[in-house]
Amino acid sequence: MKDLSELNIALAHDSFTQLGGAERVVEALHELFPQAPVFTTVLGRGLRPRYHNWDIRTSWLQVLYNFVPRLQFLLPFIPLAVSSLSLEGYDVILSSSSSWAKNIKVPKGVVHICYCHTPTRFLWVDGDYVDHEAPKILRPLVRPIIGWMRVWDLKGSSGVSQFIANSREVQKRIKSIYHRDSIIIEPFVDTVFWRPTKAKGDYFLLGGRLQAHKKTALIVEIFNELKLPLRVFGVGRQEKYLRSIAGPNISFLGRITDEDLRDEYSAAKGFIYPQLEDFGLMPLEAAACGTATLAYGQGGALETVQPGITGELFSTHDKDQIKRLVLDWQPQKYQQADLIDQAQNFSKEAFQGKIKDYLLKALGETRE
Prior knowledge:
Layout: E1 9-13, H1 21-32, E2 38-40, E3 56-58, H2 61-67, H3 78-83, E4 92-97, E5 111-116, H4 121-125, H5 129-133, H6 139-157, E6 162-165, H7 168-178, E7 182-184, E8 204-207, H8 216-226, E9 230-233, H9 239-245, E10 250-254, H10 258-267, E11 270-273, H11 282-288, E12 293-296, H12 301-304, E13 311-314, H13 319-327, H14 336-344, H15 348-367
Parallel strand pairs: 1-2, 1-4, 2-3, 4-5, 5-6, 6-7, 8-9, 8-11, 9-10, 11-12, 12-13
Helix pairs in contact: 11-14
């Protein structure tokens, strides 16, 4: 096969309820296939203006979501909603999945290629999901639902023709959970947008979704003890708690624009990334802005942070170890050119080129 334009391709995505790395990937795929419809469970009101010119086809769950805009409250309905999506008439389904888009039912003879951000996190990875997300009174009801959805998810994964993993960490998970092989194509950062815009300040930066598993509270506690300046961006279920324990040296920025975040990255003396992520784009965004990252040395950070060149890694969530690294931090150690070069390795153009090359090869083999 020499030209993908001869194929009738549809895209699929779990849901459009927030704007994160997974949504950026779908946007890059849509740039490659701008005429492709995008199948999903729900589209949040806040994102409708962004995608107003896309052909987005939601499931019947959209009606419920309009009244109850919290997908965790609609979990029992998700398998039925995913199964209701009609995918007749396409040659190829290209899905972007960190939860349930991989489980879509494709007609016989249709190739389903899944770009997997991770096997469904709340089913397989985050063992504390029920305790963190469900009200205490509902937990006895939620646990059997999670067990049932694991069976559904495992069965649904067998309908994927070929998996693309976004990192070595996710490749290992796909193998251990779904017992499937995959190839790796890393996601990207916008290296045109993310760039240095301000001179270095004297603070460290922390942020993203403020949730318990992100280990944000640990870093806030450390900076409380060190009494060093820390700026925290983002919102989430733990925000109120974090604000309640933070000392006067810690500033909360809330939800900020990408332009403001670019300035924050640029002026920070270091970006702190304490969570285990499947891949994690923020260390690359920081690098593109000329700032090194202090990261937890597991998961995706092993692929995006080069110790001694674009940042440092800590091996455990031990307060004393992290404190030593913070106190020894010297921003001038990390050369801006090295940081920007690292980010350029993960450009959108490189990502799209790898996707096209893979599709041409994979679909060519499928048709032979």
